[in-house]
Amino acid sequence: MLSKLFAYERVTIPIHTINELQLYGSFYRGSKNQTYKGTILYFHGGGLIFGHREDMPKKYISLLTENGYGLLALDYLLAPESKLPAIMQAIHRSIEWFMKEGLHTLKIDPSNYYVMGRSAGGYLALYHAVHASVRPRGVIVFYGYYTLSDASFTVPSRHFLNYPKVSDKMIQQLVGNQPISSAPTDQRYPLYLAARQRGDWLSVILDDTDHQRTYSLTKEQLMGLPPTFITAAHQDPDVPVRQAKWLHKYIPESTLHIVESNEHDFDRTHIDTLGINTYTVLVEWLNNPQQKYKLKGII
């Protein structure tokens, strides 16, 4: 149990193993006396290359749990040690575990769930919402994407070229020969930086870049999604805001909350302002996703 400021419970749960690598989930929930409204399956960001399941700031977890929502943050395999097919398969196994064990292990109704992700995690949330055997109640996408065929992913990024060039030697030192499911940002970020500087990010996550369409979602698939909350920065330098706008256009019951910022992960850098405001709007949406909110922002 954390301090009164962040009054929620947290428990670490072994989910399943991949080639002797144990994948875990961190489950957060508020008071057992409050009405439980549903479970959010959460996927962290990091370009599918770095990051860890416990990256969500405590203030956001507190806001979600005190409003009756549980949060299950899940490990997933990271590239380039594991490629996208293996990453997706492992996530599918984790969700299947939740569906089978949620009632017994977590004491909750596993059919009452949402999928959520930030950046690459938003992509994973969308993909698995489309392919879920049990349809989620909703999808939450923070500055994510639904297609790997965006032109910005296949050419050197002007934004990332402003940073010092990452050497081949550094890349070789950072890539291991065993699957991993967690990697500190300060250690592995150079791998993502190098991929975006060279315009070869797809080759880092896929053995064959021709398969990018296989792991992209179509307009027709997006049209079949449940209510979806989408947020992104107006001047996102990493994932083009057009992806958020296209999601809003194609998903029939979607809410778009655009933030005036030039930072990709604005909720990491501006927790007490842009971040907490956006999560407050998210909670309003969660409490009634069918209602159309007139959100403050730039559309």
From TrEMBL:
Pfam families per the record?
Abhydrolase_3 (PF07859)
Q: Which residues form the Alpha/beta hydrolase fold-3 domain?
A: 40-266
The UniProt entry, under Gene3D superfamilies, shows: alpha/beta hydrolase (3.40.50.1820)
Keyword check for Hydrolase, yes or no. Answer: yes
Keywords linked to the UniProt accession: Hydrolase
Which InterPro entries does the UniProt entry name for this protein?
AB_hydrolase_3, AB_hydrolase_fold, GDXG_lipolytic_enzyme
The answer, when asked if Magnesium is one of the entry's keywords, is no
Q: Which GO terms describe its molecular function?
A: hydrolase activity
The record's annotation in PANTHER family points to: AB HYDROLASE SUPERFAMILY PROTEIN C4A8.06C (PTHR48081), ALPHA_BETA HYDROLASE FOLD-3 DOMAIN-CONTAINING PROTEIN (PTHR48081:SF3)
What is this protein's name? Alpha/beta hydrolase
Q: What is the species listed in this Swiss-Prot or TrEMBL entry?
A: Paenibacillus oralis
